[in-house]
Every structure is written in structure tokens, then in C-alpha cells.
Amino acid sequence: GDVSGEHAEPNDRKLLYEEWASYSVFYKYQPIGLVRKYFGEKIGLYFAWLGLYTQMLIPASVVGVIVFLYGCATVDDNIPSMEICHPNNNITMCPLCDKVCSYWKLKETCATARASYLFDNPATVFFSIFMALWAAMFMEHWKRRQMRLNYEWDLTGFEEEEDHPRAEYELHVMHKSSKKDRRSQKKADDEKLTCRDRLPAYMTNLVMMLLMIGVTFAIVFGVILYRISTKAALHLSSNPSHVLLTVKITATIINLVVILILDEVYGAVARWLTVLEVPKTDKSFEQRLIFKTFILKFVNAFTPIIYIAFFRGRLVGRPGNYLYVFESYRMEECAHGGCLMELCIQLSITMLGKQLIQNNLFEIGVPKIKKLIRYIKSKRQAFQEEEREKRLQRYEIDHFLEPFAGLTPEYMEMIIQFGFVTLFVASFPLAPLFALLNNIIEIRLDAKKFVGELQRPVAARAKDIGIWYNLLKGVAKVAVIINAFVISFTSDFIPRLVYQYMYSHDGSMHGFVNHTLSYFNVSNFEDGKQPLHLSYVDICRYKDYREPPWSSMPYEISKEFWAVLAARLAFVIVFQNVVMLMSDVVDWLIPDIPKDISMQIHKEKILMVELFMREEQGKMHMMESMASAGDKEKCSGNSHPVPLPRQRTTPQPHCNKANNI
């Protein structure tokens, strides 16, 4: 219908609807000036930030696709996966679970090994460094863009007014002072809430935050148990390779559903905890709420991924001496291609699922349903005639729209996405591309929501995006550390390098697969743990660096393990420091204020000083002329009642002489 509103300049809303809130203009720049004019600076800054972030994702996506294509192009030249897939490869692997699982051939993991290489090749290390520098560039570009907008929107001299205390805060202070009054019979004027008053709320906050994080961990642990038990059950009935894939994907979908549900729960819990704290001002309330929500949602989204990246397959033990959960479930192992492939599946399903479901279902569907419910309720209450309903004014139609609930959900969604793009980019180079495609739709979706689905918010002035900038900076710093650990501990990059330069006879990767597998004598299985299927296997292999059964110290950790571990830790330290240093250099090289803006501000300051000096000089001249005119009047009053024309030009000293006579 018609979108020109009675409550605003009709053309602005119509123009925004046509030129901004439409999917057909996705390739155009946003009319940020018009958005700011209609919605105010705070919302204008959000869309400016979202636009710049989406723009910056273009080079990241291009490089990510090139890295992925490089993996696709070189997969046939990758010696380790060629060795695994070789028809003559006859390596027998130890069972993946007790009793029900049988021995299996390494070549069964051929497809997984080839797929893993797409995300675990030398180019992913380069891409991690590139993305760390990209994050630093993005932060610097935003600072410059923000400065330009501040200048254009006349906010350079704007200082936020001191917030008035919230009504809830005033009420608590009043209760406190009334209690004191009853005790001391003396009125306290400057009463305020101290840390001691808030201590119960702080303790509740701490306990509840830890409890919520504990719930997240418990759910991850529950999904682990589901994977272990389902894997064992399905192994009895079907093909082992299909079993693994089925269990991986179903477990990831369960994780996704739980993440989406807990996101809503954690949002409500964070608000309740912030209300308990009784912050003094609205700004303080908003910052505390954002911080709590961010911590809970961040932990919720990334705990399953961190488990797969850093813990899965590390706490397994070895054949004959496995670690067990509840004495019956064996801890999970990674497939031979490493956990990187599983990490990639988890990341892609969680990222795509969160974006598609939260965007399409929550952002479009929920407001429409709420609008419909409000409309039905108001129809019942008002008993309006059909003729009048047909002639509803625009402001009456707007009354049924969803009230504006703040920008926090929009920023939160984007900052979690920024985490997906930067934190585990070493294992998933296509993340920036997925984020870019989502954001192209997200900008127009948010625009549609603001123009057509939400009541027009009260315009608010702001110089910057506030606490969100610090959170972004924090995520970018953590990303460097996590990527260093993903490359060194989750991928096979370091073991490959160590093998190539320390153990390979010809400096190639031939023999790498055999080097990473240890031997196990099947007669050393504990009673009741060996496979039920009869087989004629004497030695099976498992992925670890351990001594063979015929050595003097059977199954002890070998020296190769320590060499690889030392190389991994060294890589983490070097990578982290080099990349952080490069990010700081980028930060230092790019000035925060664009040159043309700083020159313009400098010129304006000079003009102001000149104007001020001119005004001061004018005042001085005026004062001097008034003083001299006063002296002349005084002088002419003493000597002659009617001054002659000739005496008007008489200099002051002469007048003084006449007076003296």
C-alpha cells in the first residue's frame, strides 16, 4: 500500500521505501543522509556501519573463494590423500568403538581425506593472516567513516548530555533514604546506591552467568553422548562411512536448534539480571545489558565449535587403554582427515542455519504475526464499522506496527556473524562469502523492517556506535589467537612441515600417512573390549605418535610427538606476535581522520580564529573611538560653548594647552 506517512514528511518515507527498502536496489549505496534525516543519527550510524562491513566483506570473500579454488585445483597433487586413496593401501585401522565396531581399512576415508585438504592446505595459513589484517583494516576504515559522518552531520562538537537517573534507580534510592530516615530521623539529600547495596545483585549475576554457561557446556556434553551412543548403535546395522556422516550432520542440527532456543532464553535472562543491578542511567543499563547478552550468546554459539576444534580427539587415550565416560562410552575420535572437516561442517550448518532461521523466521515472521494479533485485538475492542476501516489514516495503520525495541538485536546478530567470519576462518575460508550474501539481503531486510514493520523510533543523536566498537576490537584480537591454535593444533599443517624437514628421506610428503600412524598388537586388547566379529588381524593402526609394541617401551609417547608439540607451540607464539604486530602497523599507517576532513577542520579553525580576531579588533576600535569622542566632548565643553569649525581638527595636546591657560 501507500507508504507516505502522515506523521512525517510524506516524500521521505516514500523515497526511503523505493530507494532503500527494496531488494531491487541491493547493488546501490544506501542513502545514509536520508536515513539519518528520517530516523536520527543513532540508526543512521548503524546502517552506515553495516554498509561498510558488507562492502569490506567483498575482498575477503574473493580471497576466500580463491583459497578454496586453490584447494580444489591442487587436491590431486596432495601426496597424503593420494596415499590414503591408493588401491594398494592395505592399512588396517583399529576399531572406532568397543565390541560392536570391527577393524576397517584406511582407504575407506579417501573421500574425507580429499575433502579435508580443501580446507587444510598451505593457502589457509595465508588466508588467516590476511583475515587478521582485514579485521584491522575494517576497524580503521570504520573510524575514518565515522569521523567523516560526524563532520557531515555536524557532530564534531557534540557531547552527549548527562543522562538523568532512571525511575527504578530513583525508587530504590527513595526506599533506602526512607529506611535511613526512620532510623536516624535525619534527611539524606545526596543518597545513592553503593556497591554494598548492589552486592546481592552482583552475586546473583555472577552465579546466574556461570549457571547459564554451565547449561551450554552440559548441552554440548549431551550432544557428545548422543554422537557416541548413536554411532555405536548404527555401527551394528549399516555401512560405517555413512554412519559417521549421518551422526555428524544430525548432531550439528541438534546443536543448531539448541543454540537458537538458548539465544532467546539468554536474551531474557540477561535483561532480568541487568534490571536486578539497578543501573543509574539508561546508557549504563544498555551497556551492561549488551555486555551480558554478548557473553552468553557468544559462549552459546561458539562452545560446540571450540570443543570440535581443540578438545575432540585429544582426550581419547589409545587402544587397550581408552578413556571412558560413565565407564561405558568411549571418548570420540577424529576421522583420519582430522577434526577440520567436522569443524567445517559444524561452522557451515551453524552459520547458515542461524542466518536463515533468525533472519527469515524471527525477523520477518514474528513481527508480522504480532502485527496481525494486535490488529485483531484492536478490531474486537473498537467495534469499528467496515466503512471506517476502509478509510483508516496512515497514522492509524502505523499504530498496529511493532514498537521499536532498540538496535541491540541487530548489532548482536552482526557481531556474532563477525565472530564466525574471523574466529575460525582457517578452517572455513568460505565464511566471508556466506556472510556477504547474507548481509546484502540483511541490509534491505532491516530497511524494510524499519520503514514498513516498526513504529518510527524517536530520533537519537550519537557520535559513535558505542560499546559495539570495543566488542568488535576484542573479537578481532581473540581471532588471531584462535586461528593460531586452529592452524597448529587442529590442522595437519605443522605435522606435515615437521615430517617434511625432519623425517622425510627425500624432502617430500611420501610416507607421511604411515609416519602419523602407530602400531597396536590386537592381543593387548582388554577382555570384553575386543571386536565381536571374528577377524584374522594381528596388528592394527591408530593415529598417534607412540612407540610400537615391539620396542623397549611399548605404547609410550614417542620423541616425534614432542618434536611436533614444540613446533606447534612455537608456531602459535610466532604467528600470534607477527600478526598482532602487522595489525598494529596497519592501525598506525592509516590515520583515524581522513586527510580532506582534517584539512577542512583545520581551515574552519583558522577562519574561526580570524573571525574572532576581527571581532576583537572591531571592539577595540569602537572602544578607542568612544574614548576619543568622550575626550573631545570634555575638551570642547571646557573652552568654548559653541565650538568653531576650525577647532574641530585641533589636536588633543593643543586643547590641553588652552585648558591650562
Automatic annotation (TrEMBL):
Domain of life according to the entry: Eukaryota
InterPro entries: Anoct_dimer (IPR032394), Anoctamin (IPR007632), Anoctamin_TM (IPR049452)
UniProt keyword tRNA-binding present: no
Region annotation (Disordered) ranges: 627-661
One Gene Ontology cellular component annotation held by this UniProt entry: plasma membrane
Primary site of residence: membrane
GO molecular function: intracellularly calcium-gated chloride channel activity; protein dimerization activity
Alphabetic keyword roster: Cell membrane, Glycoprotein, Membrane, Transmembrane, Transmembrane helix
Keyword Glycoprotein listed: yes
Topology within the bilayer: Multi-pass membrane protein
Transmembrane segments: 46-70, 123-139, 206-229, 249-269, 289-310, 414-437
Segments forming domain Anoctamin transmembrane: 35-603
Subcellular location: Cell membrane; Membrane
Biased composition (Polar residues): 647-661
Domain Anoctamin dimerisation: 6-32
Family the UniProt entry places it in: Belongs to the anoctamin family.
Name of the molecule in the record: Anoctamin
Organism from which the protein derives: Muraenolepis orangiensis (Patagonian moray cod)
